[in-house]
Amino acid sequence: MGFDITVLVITFLILLFLGVPVAFALGVPGLVYLAMQGGSVSIVNLAHSMTTPLYTYVLIALPAFLLSGRMMNSGGVTSRLFDAALALVGRFKGGLAYANVVASMLFASMSGTAVGDTGGLGAIEMKMMDEAGYKKSFSAGITASSSVIGPLIPPSVAMVVLGSSAGVSTGKLFLGGLIPGIVMGLALMVSIFVQARTTKEGQNWPTYVIPAREIPKKLLKAIPALMSPVIIIGGITSGFFTPTEAAVISIDYSILLGIVYKELTWKSFIQAIKDTVETAGTFMLIIAIAGFFTWIVTKLGLATVLQNLLMPMYSVGPLLVVFVLALILVIIGCFMDTTAAILLVTPIFFPIINNMGIDPVYFGVMMTVALISGIVTPPFGICLFVMADVSGLPVSAVTKECAKYLPAMFAVLVLIILIPGLSTWLPGLIYG
Question: Is residue 420 a contact partner of residue 359, using CB atoms and an 8 Å limit?
């Protein structure tokens, strides 16, 4: 490995382990590289490489989906989704835990992010589980773990960023993540079922029975909210509008729901916009700096270096290469936010899988699953810290509970690797 690449990678890793924000952990190594070139590389490349990734039409969908999710949360959609989830699964032992997962699957179709799920549903779920007698750390653990479904079930901010940076159809990625997202939710519920049957604490979990006559009412109230993903996915797959246009339409629909439910106030509307600007600004800064980092990585041929290291595995088959890359992705996901990690690894990994003839939608979904497993894995899993803040618990307590669901997540990851059809069948069916 060349000296420049070694310095770049080591500088990045040192900054990351020191807890430096990702944007600066990506940017500083780039500045070090420019300094090492002694003026042979024009500073113009810095500005050009940072602005080019932002001039992407599909990226308009990123702040739009973020705003739509916040509008849904402000407009009373979140509580209605949770009530619908309780109506479906509350009567089973540990019903609120099951409802937690189901609600996350439903809310994922609106928030698009794991952090949005944790921050949006987290407070409601924690409050109800506490009142029902669940241990607070258990409630926090399942709430944080179920949030990983957010980047899988469309619309997904991670998929928008991946599609933009890898040049892959966002619509195909949306559809590719749908079945794996459902499988992930089912895997988490199986884990809850096992705990309910095999642990002393689980055997004492309460049920939450909603009278039969109330169930249709709860489900009926949630139907307008559940139409959001139907409109988005239906419009994209039918070709009626693009993913970017769908994101803007989802904002209009979320505002309409808030007015219909009579819960969207002028104050909450302004706050949702402020939160979106703050989050989107952070994402865009990372994307811009990652563009500079990507330019350097491409110039130095880091993808070629990694490809040469993996060359001995090529004779065994692409499956082994995918497993090795998945392991690397899980490790990266333990230290970085999913979106930032996608921007980091896409220019390195996608040339490799393209040369090997691996389906980019299959690999993109696998990559997302591997990375989201890391957001609830120590030491720097972002949802661990968000959930600790929401619940008021130490990060160590949340981490201990989340660890119980990691086997289920990794089992889903292996399943997606071994059965490509889980992520490619639906896009192939719709797009041909």
Answer: yes
Residue 262 burial by CB count (10 A; 0-12/13-18/19+): exposed, middle or buried? exposed
CB 75 within 8 A of CB 257: yes
Asked, as a colleague might, if the bond just before 379 is cis with ω within 30 of 0, I would say yes
Domain range summary for the chain, segments of one domain joined by +: 1-41, 42-431
Task: Check: CB of residue 325 under 8 Å from CB of residue 274.
Answer: no
Q: Identify the helix (H) or strand (E) that includes residue 107.
A: helix 95-111
**What is the pTM (predicted TM-score) of this model?**
0.79
Start-to-end C-alpha separation, the chain: 41
Kindly state the helix (H) or strand (E) to which residue 257 belongs, with its residue range: helix 243-261
Q: Note down pLDDT in tens along the chain; length 432 residues.
A: 467 777 777 888 788 777 777 778 878 888 888 888 776 767 777 777 788 777 777 677 778 777 877 777 777 777 777 778 778 777 777 778 888 888 777 776 665 555 555 555 566 677 777 777 788 888 888 888 887 887 888 877 788 888 888 888 888 998 899 999 999 999 999 999 898 888 888 777 777 777 777 778 888 887 887 787 777 777 777 778 777 787 788 888 888 888 888 888 888 888 888 888 887 787 788 778 877 877 877 777 776 777 777 777 777 778 888 998 998 888 888 777 777 788 888 888 888 888 888 999 999 999 999 988 877 776 666 677 767 766 777 877 888 888 888 899 999 999 999 999 999 999 998 886
Distance CA 16, CA 293 (A): 14
φ/ψ of 70, rounded to 5, equals -70, -35
